[in-house]
Amino acid sequence: MTATLEALRDTPPGTARPRSGKRGRAGQGIRTFYLFVGPWIAGFVLLTIFPLAYAFWMSLTNTDGLSPNWSYVGLDNYVRVFQDQQTIASLGRTMVFMLATVPTGVAAGLAMAVLLNRDFRGRALFRALFYLPAVVPGVAAALTFKIIFDKNAGFANAAIGATGGEPISWLADPYVRMVLIFMILWGVGGSMIVSLAALQDVPRELLEAAKVDGAGPVYSFFRITLPLLSPIIFFQVVTGVIGSLQVFVPSLLLAPVNGAAAVTAVPEGNYFFMVHVYAEYFAKSHFGYASALLWVLFLFVLLITGVVFKIGNRAVFYGGVDPSERKD
Amino acid sequence: MTETIARRARVTALYICLIVLAVIFSGPLGWLILTSLKAPNELSVFPIQLLPSTPQWHNYIDAITFIDFLGYARNSLILATLSAVLTTISSAWMAYGFARLSAPGKKFWFGLLISTMMMPGIITLIPTYLMFAKMGLVDTYVPWILWGLSGAAYMIFLFRQFFSGMPKELEEAAILDGCGHVRIFWRIFIPQSWPVLAACMVLTFTAAWGDYIAPSLLLSSDRTTLAVAMTAGYVNEKGFPVQNLLAAGSTLFILPVLLMFLFFQRFFVQGFSTSGLK
Question: Region entry Disordered: which residue ranges (chain A) (predicted)?
Answer without folding.
Answer: 1-25
